[in-house]
Amino acid sequence: MSTRAGTVPLSDLQFLKIYFNRKRLRSTTANLKKMLAEAGGDAICNGAIFLRNQTPACHLKADGQARKAPNYRAWAISWDTPADFGVKTVPNGDRNYMECVHLIIGGKKINPVTCGADMKYRAPRTAIGTKNGRFAYYVSKDRRTPEQLRDLLAASGWDNAIMMDGGGSTCFMDSEGKGFTGDGRVIPFFLVWKLKSGDACEPEGEKPMVEINAYSKAKDGNKKLSTHFKVKEFACKDGSDAVLVAPRLVMVLQSIRSHFGVPVVIHSAYRTPQYNTKVDGVTDSQHCYGTAADIVVRGQKPAAVAAYARSIMPNWGGVGVYDSFCHIDVRESKADWKG
Predict the structure, then answer these.
(1) Are 215 and 337 in contact (CB under 8 A)?
(2) Contact status, residue 136 vs residue 7, Cβ threshold 8 Å
(3) Do 144 and 129 contact (CB within 8 A), yes or no?
(4) Is 75 in contact with 103 (CB distance < 8 Å)?
(5) Model confidence over 7-48: pLDDT tens digits?
(6) Whole-angstrom distance between the N-terminal and C-terminal Cα of the chain?
(7) What is the mean pLDDT of the chain?
(8) What is the reported pLDDT for 117?
């Protein structure tokens, strides 16, 4: 396949990052796979144009650090978090942005396209932008001029498009090892993205207003919180002593236990912020407040457990259905999702 293109809802993105090829690896298939694995993403593609000394040629800022800051303003892909990704003018206060050739801005085709003579010819192309409020990407070995690429993306409904480096730099690789390379040159920086999965699918919620009690695993581990649940079952898996538990969560879990009449196994309840980050939990996960638990009910499918949990929390609480477990939390608002 010589073209990889698509769109992703911003809410489905766990992260977008600019990855620096500090080891100066050539963009071979093996090395793209290696860099993607190191970045922890689901897909990687080439970034904006760069100079012979491997430094950026245009505005570039990553993780809050400006790597190139020319004395002009321009359009670029720009974001703090995936939720606010877009095409914006730079420099700005976002933590990340990458400028190159803008083709479509606010649904309007740029004419003429402004770029150097070395980018005007027909060549393999990469573009990043937005379509219907979604993250959009286009990486292709098909040879097009910037104007032909612009017209193609506009006809496809893109709202904004920034053309990245092209020619021999054009490359793409996904986590399944599918993609293509350019001419094997050393590319100094790439764009990497990852889709939410597992715990990262939990919708972020406000800090809960419910009662939350603090315990010591060492001192209170065997303390019974209800007929069938003890403090130690809610402890963080990193071995830390502090345990936060919301009584309302215990009440819901006890109701589930009584309804099905079989053991409820808690795989993850309270998490320290550090452990939540380690397991790729969503920022401000309910687990960090002691108001959530990932559970398995013996002999029951997660969907059945979720259905009963929702029946006793009709207008509040979070219920997430995963392949092998069910997430339950006692947030004030109602949230349902599948992981």
Answers:
(1) no
(2) yes
(3) no
(4) no
(5) 998 988 989 999 999 999 999 999 999 999 999 999 999 999
(6) 29
(7) 94
(8) 87
Structure tokens at 209: 């207003």
CB 193 within 8 A of CB 311: no
pTM: 0.69
3-state secondary structure the chain: CCEEEEEEEHHHEEEEEEEECCCCCECCHHHHHHHHHHHCCCEEEECCCECCCCCECCCEEECCEEEECCCCCEEEEEECCHHHCEEEEECCCCCEEEECEEEEECCEECCCCCCCHHHCCCEEEEEEEEECCEEEEEEEEEEECHHHHHHHHHHCCCCEEEECCCHHHCCEEECCCCEECCCCCECCEEEEEEECCHHHHCCCCCCCCCCCEEEEHHHHCCCECCCCCEHHHHCCCCCCCEEEECHHHHHHHHHHHHHHCCCEEEEECCCCHHHHHHCCCCCCCHHHHCCEEEEEECCCCHHHHHHHHHHHCCCCEEEEECCCCEEEECCCCEEEEEC
Q: 1 pLDDT band (50/70/90 cuts)?
A: low
Architecture in CATH of 200-338: 2-Layer Sandwich (3.30)
What residue segments make up the domains of the chain, in order of their start? 3-195, 200-338
pLDDT in tens, 313-329: 999 999 999 989 999 99
Question: Under a CB-based contact definition with an 8 Å cutoff, are residues 135 and 11 in contact?
Answer: no
Query: How many C-beta atoms surround the C-beta of residue 153 within 10 A?
Result: 24
Q: In terms of residues, how long is the chain?
A: 339
